[in-house]
Amino acid sequence: MQIHDPHKHLIYQANEKRYDQMDYRRCGNSGIQLPVISLGLWHNFGHTDNLENGRDILKTAFDHGICHFDLANNYGPPFGAAEENFGTIFKRDFIPYRNELFISSKAGWDMWPGPYGNLGSRKYIIASCDQSLQRMGLEYVDLFYSHRRDPDTPLEETMGALHQLVQQGKALYVGISQYNAKDTARAAAILKKLGTPLLIHQPRYSMFDRWVENGLLDELEKQGTGAIAFSPLEQGILTNKYLKGFPKNSRAVRDPRYLTKNQITPAIIKKVQALNEVAVSRGQSMAQLAIAWLLRDKRITSVLVGVSSARQLKDNIKTTDNIDFSTSELRKIERILGKR
Ligand SMILES: NC(=O)c1ccc[n+]([C@@H]2O[C@H](COP(=O)([O-])OP(=O)(O)OC[C@H]3O[C@@H](n4cnc5c(N)ncnc54)[C@H](OP(=O)(O)O)[C@@H]3O)[C@@H](O)[C@H]2O)c1
Questions:
Q1: N or C: which end of the chain has fewer CB within 10 A?
Q2: Gap from CA of 75 to ligand 1 centroid (Å)
């Protein structure tokens, strides 16, 4: 909703019923609950994108109870742009709601030139978090991640840097992304010793990428750490958008940095078509089926979607109407995915 202030500026007023329709799950053994659907700003928030569209997406998210926004230092393009644009929108619309928001950022991938702008050193992580806070205009982030395991930096140093951010008041909680089960166990043990628990792991997880089922989810459960699944729709493949070709405004056509047309093979489309039939039989869209299927496992605290429009986000939010599966539906999905 928008109202006018005395200077005739439009002011965003969040939906009063924003918490009525979303479900929340506890993040591991922590005090934090997250919405079962969270919003990621990896794509569609760069300087090449339309800021008003991004603003519409963020307001739609919050109006529907999505209070967790996920960023990283290098989201753009160019690197840093998503945090800058988020900062602009935050300042315009979200300052009154800061305490209702759970905002994350990360460092671990290429950010600036030279040996201190990448990977897992204390120097990089601390400096990068400072930059992120500046770009977003925040005093602290709720969550800061090591974006990937750096095999050449002692894990004690990387985890020590995350712990230091908490001690400095720059981050409230810490997380890791894409670490394997063994490194996750070590990271959790180091952090525990330091007195900063490992709140959450952010792995890639979808119907087409199930590596987390081979030990990681068990380890997270053991550690009392939550899990938030990224690229749950395989960057759009697990929706009905590519079933009839390549739409002009799709990620694979518009922005093939990480998803190219070649990756979307006829064999993959055949699987999505079969999955889409299951979705239709459940009265769901393909995207809703893909999200619901991830949420079937209670160890998944949240599913982290990206969207290029508020309309897509509303479609995804409707998933919460039906996340239960019958045994025969699950069996059918397994047969299609070709796992068992
Ligand atoms: N930790 C890491 O290393 C890492 C890596 C990657 C991502 N992430 C996080 O995960 C978030 C999500 O990743 P992602 O963007 O790859 O997620 P995704 O949800 O798998 O894919 C998002 C894309 O799917 C399409 N889409 C979404 N909802 C749709 C719907 N209802 N109907 C039709 N199409 C729909 C849109 O594509 P079109 O643009 O084609 O419309 C959208 O841009 C990121 O923003 C980031 O926060 C983390």
A1: C
A2: 13
Counted domains in the chain: 1
Cα atoms in the 13 Å half-sphere on the side-chain side of 211: 10
Kindly give the pairing relationship between strand 24-26 and strand 198-202: unpaired
pTM attached to this predicted model: 0.97
The per-residue pLDDT for 319 is 98
Q: Is 64's C-beta closer than 6 angstroms to any atom of ligand 1?
A: no
Q: Is the Cβ–Cβ distance between 31 and 72 less than 8 Å?
A: no
Q: How far apart are CA 260 and CA 246, in angstroms?
A: 11
Residue 250 CB less than 6 A away from ligand 1: yes
Closest C-alpha residue for ligand 1 atom 45:
40
- Amino acid code (one letter) for 216: L
Q: What is the CATH number of the domain that holds 135?
A: 3.20.20.100
Residue 161 has what pLDDT? 99
Cα(45)–Cα(278) distance, integer angstroms: 33
C-alpha to C-alpha distance for 245 and 17, rounded to whole angstroms: 39
Asked if residue 283 is part of any domain, the answer here is no
Question: Which residue range(s) make up the domain with 210?
Answer: 2-241+299-323
Per the domain annotation, does 64 fall within a domain?
yes
Flag whether 156 is in a domain.
yes
> From ligand 1's centre to the CA of 236, what distance in Å?
6
Q: Is 118 contained in some domain?
A: yes
Residue 230 CB less than 6 A away from ligand 1: yes
Instruction: Name the residue with the closest Cα to ligand 1, atom 19.
Output: 305
Q: Which atom of ligand 1 is nearest to the CA of 72?
A: 47
Is the separation of the CB atoms in 329 and 278 below 8 Å? yes
Element of type H or E holding 332: helix 327-337
The two tokens of residue 116 are 């201190």
Residues of the chain with pLDDT under 50: 340
Q: How far apart are CA 23 and CA 33, in angstroms?
A: 10
